[in-house]
Amino acid sequence: MRDESIKNTESANIYLQLGVRYMDLNKLEIARENLQLALKKDPQNSQVHNAFGFLYEKLQDNQQAKLHYEQALKFSPNDWSVQNNFGRFLCDSHAIVQGLTLLKLASATPLNDKQWVALTNAGRCELEREQKQSAQVYFEQALRLNASYAPALLEMQKVSFQTSDYLAAQTYFKRYMDVGSYTPASLWIAKQTEFALGNNAIARDYEEILLEKFPLSNEAKHKIGFTVID
Fold it and tell me: Does a structural domain hold residue 96?
């Protein structure tokens, strides 16, 4: 009986790995099939439920996502990856207090070798309730742990711009570009930042890149609202 249980666990882990891999490739139906097989082999596997929660987020089925995250947390209440994913999900669902509680747990455990991810998610959660100062503290903590973590750099670019700290926004964008690639939002902020600093030529360059790379983005469509005037 014990041998059968071990065999089921091993099979579940194989199907889980396949499911996650297909999710990364955005082959969501095949991912779901593999995760269903994993769950059949090991119904109490928290990582399978965790992966299912993330999959259903991609499928925009928040009800199912929440159910699977709840199961994952039930079976592994101290698992930092579950705490991080469920906490982020709750914040995105406007359950700020519950979400922050889980994200704080995820970022505080020494077992988490990627604490900066949970810290960045906690910062985003604070932004949901317009707590920019608290959010900035989280982002800075994340960057102290991983100075090249692109999502935290982007968030600091945004927060710095919103608080009119244009030199900081400029610096964070440059740091982000060392590790990431252009996004419509980052280009829009970079363009506005350079305009605020009086660097109109650079601002125009960013505008041209925005229009070239992301012509259908909301930022490009609202070009008239932030066009540089010499």
Answer: no
pTM of the full structure: 0.90
- pLDDT, one tens digit per residue, over 205-221 is 999 999 999 999 999 98
Domain that holds residue 66: 1-77
Taking only the tens place, the pLDDT of each residue in 34-56 is 999 999 999 999 999 999 999 99
Q: Is residue 211 part of a domain?
A: yes
Is residue 106 domain-resident? no
Q: How far apart are CA 42 and CA 91, in angstroms?
A: 29
**CB contact at 8 A, 29 and 16:** no
Angle at which helices 2-24 and 28-41 cross, to 10°: 170
DSSP state of 223: G
Let me know if residue 83 belongs to a domain: no
Question: What's the rounded Cα separation, in Å, for the pair 1 and 52?
Answer: 27
